[in-house]
Fold these 3 entries.
Entry 1:
Amino acid sequence: MKLNSSTLSQLAVAKPSYDRDGITVGIVHFGVGGFHRAHQAYYIDKLLEQGKAQEWGICGVGVLPQDRKMKAALDAQNGLYTLILVNPDGSRDVRVIGSIVDYHYAPDDPETVIELLAAPSTRIVTLTITEGGYQIENADENSVFGLVTAALSRRRDRGIASFTIVSCDNIEGNGDVARRAFTDFADEHHPGLSAWMAEHTTFPNSMVDRITPVTTPDVVTTLADTDGVEDLWPVVAEPFTAWVLEDDFVDGRPPLEDVGVLTVDDVTPYELMKLRLLNASHQGLCYFAYLAGYRLVHDAASDPLFAEFLLRYMDSEATPTLKPVPGIDLPDYKRTLIERFSNPGVRDTIARLCADSSNRIPKWLLPVIRTNLETGDPIRLSAAIVASWARYAEGVDEDGQPIEVVDQLADELVPIAKSQRDNPLAFIENTAVFGDLAQQPRFVEDYRWALNSLHRDGARVTLETLRKEQR
């Protein structure tokens, strides 16, 4: 049965019991994809199910060409979609989510989006625009920065309170990064607005966590065959979810603590924990795993050699760079990460983790290396991870098969990587990505060893050698 408002009551899966017609938009979200629908929209749906947050419905906004597909899917289904949580034992928890009540594709009608943002009822703007989405060099009036600052300018002129802007992207200090980007754009396009924003607009930092792979055709087919739901774009995710949010909102917020969100004064310790343990470990796994022939994350993470490598990276190199994390058992968190990576039901792909590395490695792994260079702590495993990226970026695996390197800098990085058999430091001499790491002798020594081992012996032998060194 096709999923939409008229068929909802007939579906034999968990679904909203609340009246969606009574929900008003209080949150506008840029970047509606799998993660937003598995995470922030999931939390609002839980609140609505409790009879709360009726004024906090979500309106999605797309600004990129590919967002047309999301608009088409959500419009056809009245904003409804199916969230499938896959447990490690293979069982599935299936629920239709109803918290997204509208969606706009901004390039078709930017004025409507600006007026939506300028409306007093819009009190929070949230973002999942990817780690690389905060560059304003090529941003125009139809970008997220252009739309949001135009709306803030109207709110200022009309005497309407500002909204809060919440980044939910995997960036250290994501709220601070968002503040700088929006403020810089405002300085260029709306004279005087940044001063008003400094006084009236807040940008709380946040930490978000739920592994959400790309939806594949078999997910759609299985949902229809097993559960009787024809959904154009369902979402699959792991059962685990977390959201830590700095409690700094200018015009109210939903009671998110009622559905498990941790609201705190300082997100930094939780943010560093997640970025340097989970996200950096994903990068520690993916390039070695792809080169060794793995294509699914759970297969690689279930390999004791790979699991041991990740745990040693987390214990010896990442953990010393962290701040105390109140209420978190770090050893248990690290063990849980390996279990989450090994969940066979999620079927996350190695290729997804390898994508956009030039945005990910500098934000998640290089800070670990730089901190440990300063303190004298080990960097051997982190340097090997960077070398595995460099080897992967050559675009050919260990069987001579081509690798599709998906990265905004691929045209620049792949030729450099191909030259590194003659110049082993070519990749890390790219200062735009690596800064001065090519001038750090201790890093260079460990990196050269790992890259040479990858070229000579391959990924698996390199990891086995590193394991013997650690004993």
Note: The chain has a mean pLDDT of 97.
Entry 2:
Amino acid sequence: MGETTTRRGFLRALSGGTAATAAAATADETAAQGQQTIDMTDQLVFDPDSVTVQPGTTVVWDNVGSVPHSVTAYEDQIPGEAEYFASGGFDSEDAARQAYPEGSIGGGEQYEYTFETEGDYEYFCIPHESAGMVASITVGSGGGEGGGGGGGMPAIPESARTLGVATVSAMASVLVLVYFFLKYGGDYGLD
């Protein structure tokens, strides 16, 4: 899956006026608390699937669906000096894989971990790894609120892009029909 952003970031990018101010204030408050939330969905994705945070940030994985998931670090894809993390508190990737479903996060449940060591972290969901439920976190002093690392506009979720393309296509079709009826409609030579 391509880059995505949190629902809060998406709404902030689309909204104006008071809604944008309220969303920005909420995001600033969350960033000030040193927390980043990642949703785990029934569509077997981490949302967002790539974030950049500051050292000391607590990442909270929230299962917003009903399908159980896990958060399991790839042992060889975290900084060498970093502490290993996995839901269930396992010491290694192998231990987490062998013990699953112990460490699973059910619908409505959460798992959290505080990242102290700078670097790149890759992680996955044990039962849905083969379905592509993998993600990454970059911990660095340039990290901030929400979205996938790099400044500028937040990335738009794939579903929103699809909806946008469908809407633009529908609008273009209406414009073509309006042009056709204005140019040729009304006078069919029936005198």
Note: The chain has two domains: 7-155, 156-186.
Entry 3:
Amino acid sequence: MQQWKKRLTSISGFLGLLMVLISSPALADAPPNILLIVSEDNGPELGCYGDPYAQTPHLDQLAQTGVRFENAFVPYSVCSPSRACFLTGKYPHQNGQIGLATHKFALYQKQTPNFVTLLKQQGYRTGLIGKLHVNPEDAFPFDFRAIPSANFKRQEPVTAYASKAAEFFKQSQEQPWFLSVNFPDAHLPFIRQVNGQPEHPLSADDVKPMPWVGVDTPRLREQVANYYNCMARLDVGVGLLLNELDQAGETGNTLIFYIGDHGAQFPRGKGSVYEGGLRVPLIVSWPGKTQSGLVRKELASTLDLLPTALAAAGCEIPEDLPGRNLEPLLTNAPVTNWRDYIFGFTTGSFPRNCYIQHSLRDTRYKLISNPRPGTDNLIADSYLDESHPHFVISGATAADQKTISPQVKQALARWSRPPRYELYDLQQDPYEWNNLAEDADYAATKARLINALTELQQQTRDPFLDPVNLEAFVKEQLDHRDMKYRKQKNFRWSYLDSFANWRAEQ
């Protein structure tokens, strides 16, 4: 009898402890895992975005389980600055990464709070699969690293990303985690098939270039077909990754973000401030939080990922982050006081492509500000001039350009030597062919957007507002077009100090 009493007492104590654990706020409100999936150099060329050539069933299914953002954008359409933006939650001129890490551009300060450091403070285990491509790398002290190279030659098969993720999941069972998985597709070179993927590759006769490119030749169609083959291979990788997440039993408590880091590398895409460069896919899936199959049309930014993740993890969102918590948009509930404008920017990302542009768009109109009008846009030259030292194979050759319409010819000429301002009605002209900046009927719209851009630059302390800073930056870039700095171990761009000091004084 005494033994039964002891057993009952023990069971009662266990049940009491269990009830305490179940009712514990820490368990009841367990923070979600956070999975950030990033692809290279692609806009919303996915089936779920209505693209007629995309073979992306896994990403389409992810959109069906979550929320797809129709109007999502990056602040800068080149790899390093874009990645620094979503990792720090700050604009390029705020964090300092205003060019490619491979060309020694960097954050102003190693101590800049970011996805990794902020979530680690909240008890998260952190991991990175694929490239980081932001300087300095030790500003992001991940607990787990795998496949650190860019892998543009696809020597690591797409299956490797999923297997490394499975390893991370297995190691992270005792605490919430943040994992960023960065696939190499669809970066150049556009490789038709790797290790049998995709199983049924497209050919030139199967596709047409994206409508914002404006050029359509057999040569370019071959590049476009292989771009879509890269997208199909990316989708296979995402499917394998999500299967490993499911096998680990983590799907139900994981907030998933999927983004492209910027638009595709075709004329008026990557590197530009046109929609083809800045507009990206954004899908958010969070079981129990996202309304399945919802499409949101509000203006969203990759700057919104960090505030959203921090809020989900129970962290306080730093006041100096310009992004928004996306959680109010994850259901079809009405939302008021959302952002009115989206900001875009480029420096050209390295000396041989140097050109400064800002853009600002609302839900209909788009302003592009060119503070050095009438000078050569070296970014455009890299796509349109075969003598450019970095002419890209997916650009438009002289032979390609002989086939274009007068309207496209005029637009490419404008891109090559931009006027002070460009203005586009994206409702009537979604591919930005017709510049309305000098049309008197749009003078009020132009003035409104100029004022809004200036106000945003002032609020975020953009050093390029000051002509002295702008000219000094351009001069230093153009003086280093020989690129000898790449072999100088201690080389440091002067803007890292001068811009940081200017910002501190404002």
Note: The longest helix spans residues 218-247.
